[in-house]
Design brief:
By secondary structure, the chain is α/β, with parallel strands linked by helices. Helix content is 36%, strand content 24%. The protein is built from 16 helices and 19 strands. The strands form four sheets. The protein has an eleven-stranded mixed β-sheet with strand order 4-3-5-6-7-8-9-13-12-11-10. It has a four-stranded mixed β-sheet with strand order 18-17-16-19. The longest helix is centred in the N-terminal third of the chain and has 22 residues.
Length: 445
């Protein structure tokens, strides 16, 4: 594909939307807030008029027009249980062009069905093009995508392959991350370094660790865009070292599309104010202050076919304490800290971020892949695959002796630790290689 054709892709996929996002980059915070409020008011009025579920929940139109934010915040939190229960009552009674069915990834074990139309997808493509531009990528340049959702990799294979070639894009299957597959991926990246390498956070980290164990450094990659998983600082460092490229963190989901991304300053993730209204709430449902992790509650401003108003997406994040040096006055996230179900509840009542378990394994270079699973408040299992695939009871016993005191102190003295050496660690239903899983059900509020 020629670069000239590739440069047209953002415009072919949504010219007005892409231009609107570019203009919004230069707007002041008050102007952005007014624009967002106007878009929110239109969405709420339409939802009140067309969507059975919201007909009795939203206030009158004149109240919405006066203060759309207050009208939104008067609504109850929407969760997947409610979406499955209410079904079509959450959909607009007025059909819109290009309506398609989609489902959430199901990493919490509770996938849900959503409906999205052409207008929603145009905004989504424009957002992707903008975030790509922040990483330095230009349409038509070579891109490699280390992706794992089997439905994305296999759907319409012939058409999909043609579309990928037209975009100058190569798909690398991350569903199977065995040594031979990762060797092949590294050889392909080394032979034809892409302008952008897009990865699942966990899969990109595994590939980078494999490259470093092999003594391989890939040169010539322009940037790495991490998405679909929590990017911890150690993961970023490892990926940057292996691929000799800056890492950009992007945050999104199947339900509402891409929500936020890092810019060239790497001071946090800018939330797109034209497509999302984002809240971060504490356990009591109050706004969490900057720097304090809380539950992400998102309102998609572009899905008029099935409005998701105050949807609890199941993630934890925090607002940044400071502004970004880039000059964009978009809302800024300090970080996204994983799924609510990635965090542990100890027998002693403690709530612990799953990232703490990752840090416990930093000194263990002999561990190739691993996964922590919390079966109960007093039962934790570490599933691991040694990098050398060698069974060594002595080093596993030494690992247990080092881990148990820390785990007992943090989660309670009654906590049982099992260490299980396995042959494979399969990805989740959405294709992600999860490092921490909690099987405890989150209390609903």
């Amino acid at each position: 594909m020629s670069l000239a054709f590739g440069a047209l892709l953002p415009w072919l996929s949504g010219p007005r939307e892409y231009a609107a996002l570019r203009r919004a980059e230069r707007l002041s915070l008050p102007a952005l807030q007014r624009l967002q409020a106007e878009r929110l008011a239109r969405l709420l009025m339409q939802a009140r008029d067309e969507v059975p579920y919201y007909r009795d929940l939203l206030p009158p139109v004149n109240v919405i027009a006066t203060d759309p934010v207050a009208a939104l915040l008067s609504l109850p939190i929407l969760d997947k249980h409610t979406i499955r229960r209410e079904g079509e009552r959450l959909c607009s009674e007025r059909p819109r062009p290009g309506l398609r069915r989609n489902t959430s990834g199901g990493s919490t074990g509770e996938p849900a069905t959503f409906y999205q139309d052409t207008a929603y997808r145009r905004w989504g493509r424009a957002t992707k093009a903008l975030f790509d531009a922040w990483t330095g990528y230009r349409p038509g340049h070579r891109k490699a995508v280390l992706w794992a959702a089997s439905r994305d990799l296999t759907a319409g294979r012939g058409v999909r392959r043609l579309a990928e070639r037209m975009k100058n894009r190569t798909l690398l299957n991350a569903y199977c991350m065995d040594p031979a597959t990762m060797d092949a991926h590294l050889e392909q990246l080394r032979a034809a370094p892409p302008a952008q390498l897009q990865v699942y956070a966990e899969s990109g980290h595994e590939l980078a660790r494999h490259a470093l164990r092999r003594g391989i450094r890939i040169q010539g990659i322009g940037s790495v865009l991490s998405s679909a998983g929590t990017l911890f600082p150690d993961m970023r460092d490892t990926i940057e070292e292996a691929f000799s490229a800056p890492v950009f963190n992007r945050y999104g989901s199947r339900e509402v599309g891409d929500m936020a991304c890092e810019c060239e300053c790497h001071r946090g993730l800018h939330v797109n104010p034209l497509t999302q209204f984002l809240e971060i709430l504490d356990d009591e449902g109050r706004p969490a202050p900057p720097g304090t992790p809380g539950r992400v509650v998102v309102t998609s401003l572009t899905n008029h076919s099935m409005p998701l108003l105050r949807y609890a997406i199941g993630d934890l994040a925090s607002w940044a304490r400071e502004t970004c040096d880039c000059g964009r006055e978009w809302p800024l996230l300090e970080g996204v800290w994983g799924r609510v179900t990635d965090h542990l509840r100890g027998a002693n009542g403690a709530v612990v971020f799953g990232g703490w378990l990752r840090q416990l394994l930093y000194p263990e270079d002999w561990i190739g892949q691993y996964q922590w699973v919390q079966h109960a408040e007093d039962h934790l299992r570490l599933r691991l695959i040694p990098a050398d695939h060698r069974s060594d009871s002595e080093r596993e016993q030494a690992l247990r002796e080092r881990l148990e005191p820390a785990i007992h102190q943090q989660l309670g003295a009654s906590t049982r630790l099992d260490i299980e050496r396995v042959g494979t660690i399969p990805p989740s239903a959405s294709g992600k290689h999860l490092h921490v899983i909690s099987e405890l059900r989150e209390n609903r509020r």
